[in-house]
Amino acid sequence: MTGARSEDEIRQLQERLARAFTNRDFDAVLRCYADDAVLLAPGRPAAAGKAAISAELQAAFADPNVDVVVQAARIEVAADDRLASAWGTGLTTITDPRTQGRTRIASKWLAVYRREADGWKVVADAFNVDAPMP
Questions:
Q1: Domain around 104
Q2: CATH number of the domain that residue 49 is part of
Q3: For the whole model, what pTM was predicted?
Q4: Tens digit of pLDDT per residue, the chain (134 long)?
Q5: In whole angstroms, what is the distance from residue 81 CA to residue 77 CA?
Q6: Does some domain include residue 36?
Q7: I need a surface site. Which of 39, 96, 111, 123 has the fewest CB within 10 A?
C-alpha cells in the first residue's frame, strides 16, 4: 500500500463515521474503532474500549439536536503504512441546556489510526472545543 492510497482509505473511514453519526447507527460507528480504542471528550473521563465508547456516544447523541460535521485538515501516514494520524476542525450542534435552543460549538480534533486485518481503525480519538461549553 502507498501512503496516498492509505490516506484515501482513511478519508473513506471518516466518511463512514460521519454517515453513521448522522444516522445514529452506533453499530456502524463502533465498526470504525479498534477494540482497544480510546475516546477523549472534553470534560469527560477517558472512554476506553468499544463498550465505553458506545456508552459515551449514545449519551451524547441522546440530544435530538446533536449534529456533528468534521473536516480533516491533514492526514499523515507513517512510513511503514501501519499507523496514521489526522487532525481537523468540527462544528457540533447541540441543545443549549440554559436556553433549550440550538447552539453550535466549534472544535478541533486529533485521531490516530491503525491498519488492522479488516482495514484502518480509529485507536485514539480526542477533541476539544474552541470556547467553553454552554
A1: 3-129
A2: 3.10.450.50
A3: 0.89
A4: 568 899 999 999 999 998 888 888 989 999 999 999 999 998 899 999 999 999 998 888 888 888 888 999 999 999 999 999 999 999 989 888 889 999 898 999 999 999 999 999 999 999 998 887 65
A5: 6
A6: yes
A7: 96
